Amino acid sequence: MQQREYHFYVYILASRSRTLYVGFTNNIRQRINQHRNKNPDTHTAKYNIGRLVHYEHFTYVLNAIAREKELKDWNRSKKIELIEQSNPTWEDLAADW
Question: Does the residue 1 lie in any domain?
């Protein structure tokens, strides 16, 4: 019997003014589209946050959840440092999705 492969993502979204949002999902494309739809009464809609500037892939859900909690506990400057290590110009990594 073939073992199923799982995909989980921890991601950081940013607005043009660099307001940040950290999230977790098992379907990153669908989740980014949900954020971009700007559903009323959501944090991402209120602050116009929709650019994917960082994400990490995990195969184990508990590792992804732990990483999301870790990133949420970080201060802003530490999150910015993480983003700029792999995406120094803050490009939207999901622009062509």
Answer: no
Structural domain harbouring 40: 8-86
Both tokens of 41, joined, read 């009464």
Alpha carbons 75 and 69: distance in angstroms, whole number: 12
**CA distances (Å), origin 2, targets 5, 8, 27:** 9, 19, 21
Where residue 32 sits, what CATH number does that domain have?
A: 3.40.1440.10
Q: Is the pTM of this model over 0.90?
A: yes
pLDDT along the chain (97 residues), means of 10: 89 96 98 92 93 98 98 98 98 95
Report the domain count for the chain: 1
Q: Is residue 97 part of a domain?
A: no
Residues 6+ apart with CB under 8 A from 53: 12, 13, 14, 83, 87, 90, 91, 92, 93
